[in-house]
Amino acid sequence: MTDDTTFQLDDFLPYRLSVTMNRVSRAFARRYADEFGISIAEWRVLAVLGSFQPISSNGIVEKTQMDKAKVSRAVAGLLAAGLLRRSVDPADQRLLKLAFTAKGRRTYEAIVPRARALETVLTQGLGQDGRARFLTLLAALDRQVRAMDQAGDLAS
Amino acid sequence: MTDDTTFQLDDFLPYRLSVTMNRVSRAFARRYADEFGISIAEWRVLAVLGSFQPISSNGIVEKTQMDKAKVSRAVAGLLAAGLLRRSVDPADQRLLKLAFTAKGRRTYEAIVPRARALETVLTQGLGQDGRARFLTLLAALDRQVRAMDQAGDLAS
DNA sequence: GGACTATCGTTTCACTTGAAACAGATGTCA
DNA sequence: TGACATCTGTTTCAAGTGAAACGATAGTCC
């Protein structure tokens, strides 16, 4: 029995990443739903609109890394909830320019500090500069996995 | 316009965690599927069996953080693929003891070094001790989010 | 102008997910 | 023993997912 046979799932980075991320996602999703009645996808759309209003659905796709079907559904939900309005771009009728309604802006301005507060609670216990160090490492992981995807793994 | 209105999604930890984890998950899932014909859930079951054979489905639930429906489906898939065999525990007929078949063990022993290699590639670029530092920070995050769940957030 | 290709956003489709219902087996307590 | 609660693993169900098909618009080339 060599070392190769003693594999510890608990020490496997992709596994730990998945478990923790799912917990974080669930915790945040529940709060957004309970307190504001929106999903994480909808919250991301609002977050982008907060900085880049007005913007098309495709612009949101590029900024959120969500696929276009997911964005389409999130936008539909926000329209139904009266948080967004949309208008056809006169210069290109394929584009739907999205913007906050008054209610949408109020919701956005209420969520932002709440999201920040939740993030602060979440990152308590990471120690000095922990949040920044974590984001740096996460960015390096992201670069690497994108390179893996692009390369098709080379070894295969 | 105060600072409260300038929210950057790209600097929001839960968002970054979700995006990167999804990329990692997809990259690994594709390789497990292409090279071994199994899903991530099935791989986790194999990984647990590698250390804790024989074990019941419920034991796997506890060790993998997957819910029992997911484990049930993963086990069914592995049984169908001929990688596992199961027998009723004579002492408690509710329990199904799961163990590798010969083929299952061969598959396990082939996947483990491959998974390790993929993790090594993934963590290239994290710098000195980067993997260990990342896992430490991730564990701290995990502790915190579990505390948030338990507390129901206190602030609400 | 007309044919062809590309882009935008929605919808369809097959699949996955977790919560809940469920059936079977075991434990508990009077 | 019998009534009842608990535990294990499977299945059902409704909701969510991304890939792909789709209709509509725009750009390109002849």
How many angstroms separate the termini of chain A? 27 Å
Order of helices and strands of chain A: HHHHEEHH
Spatially, the strands of the biggest sheet of chain A line up as 1-2
Global Rg of chain A: 20 Å
Oligomer: homodimer
Number of strands of chain A: 2
Tally of helical segments of chain A: 6
Q: Please state roughly what percent of the residues of chain A sit in beta strands, choosing from under 5%, 5-15%, 15-25%, 25-35%, 35-45% or over 45%.
A: 5-15%
Spans of at least 5 consecutive residues with low confidence of chain A: none
Based on helices, strands and strand pairing, what is the structural class of chain A? Answer: mainly alpha
Average residue-wise pLDDT of chain A = 90
Largest sheet of chain A: 2 strands, antiparallel
Largest interface, with counts of residues having CB < 8 Å to the other chain, equals: A-B, 70 and 70 residues
Helix proportion range of chain A: 55-70%
- Inertia-based shape of chain A: globular
